Amino acid sequence: MKIEIKKILQYQVAFIPMKGSYEQIPETLGKVVGWLMVKNVEIQMPVYGAYYNSPMEVSEDELEWEVGAAFIGELEAEEDIEIKIVPQHKAVSTVFKGPYGDAASVYMDLIQYAAKEGYEIAGPILESYLNSPDEVPESELLTEVQFPVVKK
Fold first, then answer.
1. 19 forms bridges with which residues in the sheet?
2. Which H or E run contains 104?
3. How many other CB atoms sit within 10 Å of the CB of residue 67?
């Protein structure tokens, strides 16, 4: 597994902040992507999920997360879909191959690598979904896993 510290350029996203079960992810993500497609903007990078706490820390109904997609164009937030600019930053990153639910198995490796390189974690885990279970078997799914980092 290749782990690296990489520079992430500024981008804007449409997203829906959520609280509760991860079982809501596919429907919520579909809503964001569908909205972007109706708005006829260019989706810039793979769809993502950002996770602010863990099922090991809180109950399922207390899970806080968001899903969304980066896009190019001008849009205003509507209903429960929000827009934000993610500033340029550095992240410790790797690509995990396998079922989405198993991607957390690399979190500790990323945290340890960041510390070894003189960085500390500076925000929530972000998973970018590079392909789809509609296109490949679960064992072939690719997820880029990132933690934003800052130099100690």
1. 64
2. none
3. 28
CATH class of domain segment(s) 4-151: alpha beta
Q: pLDDT per residue over 100-134, tens digit each?
A: 989 999 999 999 999 999 999 999 999 999 998 88
Alpha carbons 42 and 107: distance in angstroms, whole number? 30
Tell me what the mean pLDDT of segment 55-59 comes to.
Answer: 93
Report residue 150 CA to chain centroid gap. 18
How deeply is 115 buried, as exposed, middle or buried, from its count of CB atoms within 10 A (0-12, 13-18, 19+)?
middle
CA angle, residues 92, 8, 110, in degrees to nearest 5? 10
Q: From 47, 48, 42, 27, select the one nearest 75 (Cα to Cα).
A: 42
Give the model's confidence band at 135: pLDDT under 50 very low, under 70 low, under 90 confident, else very high.
very high
Q: Compute CA 129 distance to the chain's CA centroid, rounded to the nearest angstrom.
A: 8
CA–CA separation, 93 and 128 (whole Å): 11
- How confident is the model over 63-80, as pLDDT tens digits? 999 999 999 999 999 999
CB 96 within 8 A of CB 143: yes
Question: In terms of pTM, does the model score above 0.85?
Answer: yes
Distance between CA atoms of residues 4 and 15, nearest Å: 26
